[in-house]
From TrEMBL:
Coiled coil: none annotated. The keyword Transcription regulation does not apply. It comes from Kibdelosporangium lantanae. NCBIfam families: GGDEF. This is Diguanylate cyclase. Keywords: Membrane, Nucleotidyltransferase, Transferase, Transmembrane, Transmembrane helix. Its EC number is 2.7.7.65.
Amino acid sequence: MIARGVRTWVRRWALWSLPRHVVIFVLLAETVAVVITAATAETAIHQRDLVLWGILALGSVVHLEAVRSIERVREGLRHNAPYVDLKSVWTFAAVLVLPTPLTVALVILTYVHLRSRLVRMPIYRCIYSCSTVILATHAAAAVLTAGLPTYPGLPGTAAGVFVIVLAAMLRWFVNHGMVVAVIMLSSPQTPGRTALGIFSNNIVEVAAVSLGAVTALAAVTQPWFIMLILPTLVVLHRALLLHQYEVAARTDEKTGLANAVHWSETARLELRRAERDKASVGILMLDIDHFKEVNDTHGHLVGDAVLKVIADTLRDACRPHDLVGRWGGEEFTVLLPGVSETTVVDVAERLRKLISVQEVPVPPENPTERIKGLTASIGAVTYPATGPALEDLLLAADKALYEAKANGRNKVMTVPHLTS
């Protein structure tokens, strides 16, 4: 009866609704983690190892409890990107001073604690994340075993510290790479820079690994010094939260694009730079045709999915230094620094054609049904030819957009004449 209940529970996991290649990738990673861990299970464990494990486990529990309220807010602000946490302070310290089986045990403990007390992530995500850290742990342990004759244990030479740095780099690369891989496999429309995560957050993760080496030193020499590390961790968590608030303040929640305020502020700065450098700037204003019919026919959730697909299409098709924003409703704006009047029309035409081939699935009533034939009308203007100020440019772009709508939609217009 219990076994049947467990099977039923597992079958309900959202994992099985993902594409088959994603499921295979996840299960393969978890299987490899289990096999490698089993192969190292016979490693000798001494009483001192158990004491060190207890110190690091206690530190991990106290740490996560101290930042519990912060992390719950951070999880709510997170979009489809790697979740940056600081558990590696404890798990990398364990890699350095403990036999691998005990390190794996600590990794499992941190994830069980994380899910039960802080972040209510789906169980399959928790298992996969734990598996990636376990694989990264084995990779780091392999480097340390090959490079440190005293391993497990801390080296006393500069060369030994270099080996630790190599192990830390490999650990981060394996863990982060596997997280990014599953994000890209399960959500191909996610921009690569979003999946990779914010650079500053990744730097914090690297810093946490470095702090893990200091934690290992404290655990071996003066365990009470670990108490001095905890305030630093709380401050780092608050810094991550502050950064997420800053990102949320300038980001449209539904699409992940710049909101109207942030887009306008950036556009004004770009126009001032263009005035100084005698350069040009292109601006596009784009409106999805017949979007109300999508909402009326399929509902607002499907409408939101259409907005997200259009947003991702625009962002992926533009250059890294262009800025795509959601102006409001089904309207989008695109800032194109350094483009001529001819180029801005060419870019608009390319975006219009890309939108026309997009398809959006209509779940859950009929998973095979897809919305096709999406179109957009676009108004295209340039600085300084169209006007000197952002307000002038936006009014002109809006007028061109209105003319595109009035002339049959699915067109690109400039002021004052039809261009396509």
